[in-house]
Hints:
By secondary structure, the chain is of the alpha+beta class. The protein has helices at residues 13-16, 19-33, 37-44, 50-53, 78-83, 96-100, 125-128, 158-165, 203-206, 259-263, 307-310; strands spanning 61-63, 110-115, 121-124, 134-142, 147-157, 173-178, 198-202, 212-217, 220-221, 231-233, 246-252, 287-290, 298-299. Strands 1, 4, 5, 8, 9, 10, 12 and 13 form an eight-stranded mixed β-sheet that branches. A five-stranded mixed β-sheet has the order 3-2-11-6-7. Molybdenum atom binds next to loops.
Amino acid sequence: MLIKSRTSADLPYSEVTPEPIYRSRREFLAATAVGAVGAIAGGIGSEACAEAAVPQGTLTARKTAFVTDPAVDPLSTWETITTYNNYYEFGTGKDDPARNSGRLTTKPWTVKVDGLVDKPGDYGLEDLIDFKNLEERVYRHRCVEAWSIVVPWIGVPLLGLIKKVQPKSMAMFVEFTTLERPSEMPGLSRGSLEWPYREGLRMDEAMHPLTLMVVGVYGKLLPNQNGAPLRVHVPWKYGFKSGKSIVRIRFTDKMPMTSWVMQRAEEYGFYANVNPTVDHPRWSQAREVRLPGFFKNRPTLMFNGYGDQVASLYAGMDLRKFY
Ligand SMILES: Nc1nc2c(c(=O)[nH]1)N[C@H]1C(S)=C(S)[C@@H](COP(=O)(O)O)O[C@H]1N2
Ligand SMILES: [Mo]
């Protein structure tokens, strides 16, 4: 079973988190409290990533029924989630984001909401996200490069945000634009993608209850390398659909261009649904490696295992054509 039917609203962290991680997290919090931040960060990664690896706040979130079966999909560790990243604005190496994102400042943070919407504006992060009503959801997260992790995200459904800003009925798509700040993002000068990073969803995908606006992970504010202070996660799509450090949300009646489609349209499509039967032109999508690991020995699931919830969104569509 992919999503547990029982509500885990009252589970303590120790029940959803593997014990060693739980312990190190407690030690981590205790040490942070006495000011030994540098020492603990040293244990997580290198000295250089100390700032990036230690977000400043803990978050209170309601546990929900969105929990993967720990026997099948145990949580990835904090270390895996925060040291093996794609965030090309900080470099294309997997460890670049953790090493190079320490300078990124995320306070204050404003998100422009515009396009076909009744309540456009420049929203402060706290006006857009109700930090008193956060959920924790454990989602599988599958990169197009065929690695996957399991992440205890903290956030709110995008649906709630959409209801707040009230898109017009002509809005068919939502476009996310993410931060482009050369002074704090050394990877921008390398031209590895079209900046600013842009992604988009069809309106029904955006409004699907699984689509999450993420502000934290493992009970903490998002580390910079994971997309602080606000990223989206769409668990049935390849990781690149989940834009990090979002600064603009635009509603439109036309399918938005995305940075990956602009880069190589024949390899990366707008939909990018996880699909083991449609290979990337240069490699198979049938299997994946669960990090940390080396072998692609895990079968990839249609829609990343969320098919029961999302397959109906694509009824009648040829998913070879709309990849
Ligand atoms: N702004 C921005 N968002 C981004 C990316 C990026 O390079 N820049 N990479 C994407 C890709 S390819 C993946 S797999 C996920 C990785 O998320 P994670 O590092 O939190 O696991 O972020 C996505 N969001
Ligand atoms: Mo990715």
